[in-house]
Amino acid sequence: MSFTQLKGFDSLGQYSYDEILTQNLIMFFDWGFINKGGYVNVNIPSSGAYGGDFSRLRPVQDPRYSNGQVWESIRANWLWESGLEYESPINISGVFVNSTFVPQSGGTFYIDYPNGRIIFNSAISQNSTVKVEHSRKWISVIPSQNVPWLKQVEMRSHRVDDSNFLIGSGDFALLRDNKLQLPVVAIETAGATYQGYMIGGSQYCYTRVKFYVIGEDKSTVDRLTHIISSQNDKSIFLFDSNSLATNNRFPLDYRGSRASGCLSYPQLVEYSGHGGYRLTDGLLGGKISFSDAQSQPVQELTTNIYQRVVTITTEGILTKI
Predict the structure, then answer these.
(1) Position 150 confidence tier, pLDDT thresholds 50, 70, 90
(2) Among the listed residues 130, 54, 121, the one whose alpha carbon sits nearest the alpha carbon of residue 98
(3) What's the pLDDT score for residue 162?
(4) pTM over 0.85
(5) Which domains occur in the chain, in start order?
(6) Are the C-beta atoms of residues 85 and 266 closer than 8 Å to each other?
């Protein structure tokens, strides 16, 4: 051990353990929800409970693009993963523009999965009718900094019959980057304690993690709170975010599109010999465990917006010294 160097990392450009932990928890719970059926297949047409069509997209006036380039669905967070055990999600193969099918393989547009958008290379008429068959996730799992109370919570985002959706007024006037669709689970690391594991070597790291469960109805919030709390005593493997960055293997690229050969969570946490990126440098066994799960009573933040907070301790043995 050097007496002149900081320990626990190789360079300031690396992801920290907290960052790696947060990224892994987001992908673990996101995968866990969709793998148990937490998504909806949107076919053409796909009517809402009160009418409208979930498959229809609307043109968005986004200052980063020309008018007619960006088309979005009423709900964001399209599903991109494959290999689910529960049913079969829709793999987007193309879009319909005025009833004419435009295949994705033609390279005339790309898909922004997190924002639920199709972005054309060149603008098309804003009077066009654009539809796409896709699967959308029911729950958004995000880092807590993406729930700034600078963003506007978008109510009624399931009401595709609302005429304001197509004309982009009312709740639909804001850019998707500035809106938060419910239900959501926001994850935050909230401090850690360390204890020696062996003299002069590894140490236990106990990290408290908060899960903010927010929804428009109490029953959904209660259900998600129970699911998260039930992970008490479970162990999971972590993938190495630094290795993903070095090898340019994050599943989605900077546009929110699938990267070439994108891997879902179970594939990411496989050993490298099986094509995965399990964390083997700095964390004993690449594994953490959950304990001491606690949930708070429901709070009504505003009218029809409910929140519960679950706190869980994660335990890992850090070996980088």
Answers:
(1) very low
(2) 130
(3) 56
(4) yes
(5) 17-36+184-318 (3.30.2000), 39-137+140-181 (no CATH)
(6) no
